[in-house]
Design goal:
Length: 251
């Protein structure tokens, strides 16, 4: 995936330059230039995220090299034999390793499918938000910012962001656990010499743990609130127009 990023940057760089030139050539007081440039940036985000998602999914499904963080049981390979620690806070500190970085190329098909699906779902959730932003910019440029279709697009984008990130993180967490089981799990071993290990295994033991990031969920709630504010503003505007029409009719 990292190898394709320079190519993606080369592809979108001309678009970015053209967008900046377009904004600079417009009048500084023209807000449509800012909206147009925002739409260009959103399209660039769609291209970058979509391209990286496709490359990552193809690499994962094709049994390419995968590097991921795997949760493990609290582990410390060997405590150092030291004395006279300064400052004296050794009893108040506990050192543990809870995640390890695993790079593997021979993961099972189910594990690779979970990792690819988790990445795709999470990325598509972000693309849904960018698509809603592009739709809003297009409505603004067409002088039709308030419409029922835009309200539906906002609700769909918020729902996709909340559910997509939740499902994506869940699939990625399950895939990371399966990857840990395939790469780190040791059923038995024989110790040679006088080696002693503080734990029941000299290797990290995979653990099932999913770290959920609730920032996208909170962002989705904010989008829903903004959509409802726009909906309320549209209702008030229609009500004012109706009252004005009735008042003009009475006069």
């Amino acid at each position: 995936m990292l190898a394709i990023l320079p190519l993606l940057l080369v592809l979108v760089l001309p678009v970015t330059v053209l967008g900046i030139v377009y904004v600079l050539r417009r009048k500084s007081s023209d807000s449509s230039a800012v909206v147009a440039f925002t739409r260009i940036v959103a399209w660039i985000g769609v291209v970058l995220i979509g391209g990286s998602l496709l490359v990552g999914a193809v690499a994962a499904i094709a049994n390419g090299e995968s590097t991921l963080q795997v949760p493990i049981e609290p582990y410390w390979p060997e405590f150092p034999a030291v004395s006279d620690v300064t400052p004296d806070h050794g009893d108040a500190v506990r050192s543990e390793i809870t995640t390890v970085t695993v790079t593997a190329t021979n993961l099972g098909a189910a594990t690779r499918g979970l990792l690819a699906a988790g990445s795709l779902v999470s990325g598509l959730a972000v693309i849904a938000v960018l698509a809603a932003l592009i739709a809003l910019c297009s409505k603004l440029l067409a002088a039709k910012p308030f419409s029922d279709s835009l309200r539906r697009a906002g609700r769909i984008a918020a729902s996709a962001l909340a559910l997509g990130t939740l499902v994506g993180q869940t699939l990625t967490g399950i895939g990371a656990y399966r990857a840990g089981e395939e790469t780190l799990r040791v059923d038995g071993y024989t110790s040679t010499g006088d080696q002693e290990f503080p734990g029941f295994s000299p290797w990290p033991v995979p653990a099932f743990s999913i770290d959920y990031d609730f920032a996208p969920f909170l962002m989705a709630l904010a989008i829903l609130v903004v959509v409802e504010l726009v909906n309320a503003g549209m209702a008030m505007a229609r009500q004012n127009e109706r009252l004005r029409a009735e008042t003009d009719g009475l006069v």
